[in-house]
Amino acid sequence: MRLSARNLSTAFAAAFGVFALASLSASAQTGDQAPASSPTSSSAGLILQESEGELRIRRPRGNTGTEGAPSFRIKVDRTYGASTSFFMGMEDIPPGKKIRLHHHPHAEEILFVHRGSGVVRLGAREATVRAGATVYIPRNVSIGLHNTGAEPLTLIFIFPEPDGMSGQMRSGSVGEGEPLVPFTPEELAARNARGSEHIVFDEPSTP
């Protein structure tokens, strides 16, 4: 059967329309049309700006001394980004605050100083670190960090698997907008006991 020029034009337009719709559908499935910070349950991946990721607020522990940061942001883990291999997060350590000395029995860790400065203790060594510094922490080696600068120390942390420290940090925090209930001493002790497989503190909490 021979088609007229008009019929050929109509058929081509219809085919092009189907192709365009299919292309848009595929683009949406791969996340091209989604906001960069949207988590995904597929292997499409994530493109995150510095301020993007899953914000987690740490539940108060009854300690208002020199320790820690009030929040952190998960960049990639099994829940956010559907990673089967990595847990990556970012947090700001305020001036004068610290991450107390601890070690991870079953996981290596990498710290990257994105901004600010401070003092790191790695095993028996101590060194000043500034923006751009990388600290590799083998398993069972103690690590501590003190922000000795005048501005927040922005820290990126990476673990090789998402089910250990990711779950431990999630269990000690709530999502943005969720009720923020302080730990009771009993809850905190039970959580620390459960989490000792993933993190062990080598110095007491500082009041």
Characteristics of this structure?
seven-stranded antiparallel beta sheet, 207 residues, Jelly Rolls, 3 helices, alpha+beta, 12 strands
Your description of this structure?
The protein has helices at residues 5-29, 165-171, 185-194; strands at residues 54-58, 71-76, 87-93, 98-103, 109-115, 117-122, 125-130, 134-137, 143-146, 153-159, 173-175, 200-201. It is an alpha+beta fold and 207 residues long. It folds into two domains: 1-34; 54-201, Sandwich (Jelly Rolls). Strands 8-5-10-3-2-1-11 form a seven-stranded antiparallel β-sheet, with helices on one face. It is globular.
How many discrete structural domains? 2
Overall body shape = globular
Poorly predicted regions: 1-37
The end-to-end span amounts to 88 Å
Could you spell the SSE succession in H and E letters? HEEEEEEEEEEHEHE
CA radius of gyration is 24 Å
* CATH structural fold name of the largest domain: Jelly Rolls
What portion of the residues fall into strands of 2 or more residues? 25-35%
Total number of helices = 3
Describe the sheet with the most strands.
7 strands, antiparallel
Total beta strand runs: 12
The percentage helix is: 10-25%
Please identify which CATH superfamily of the largest domain we are dealing with: Jelly Rolls
- State mean pLDDT (0 to 100 scale): 82
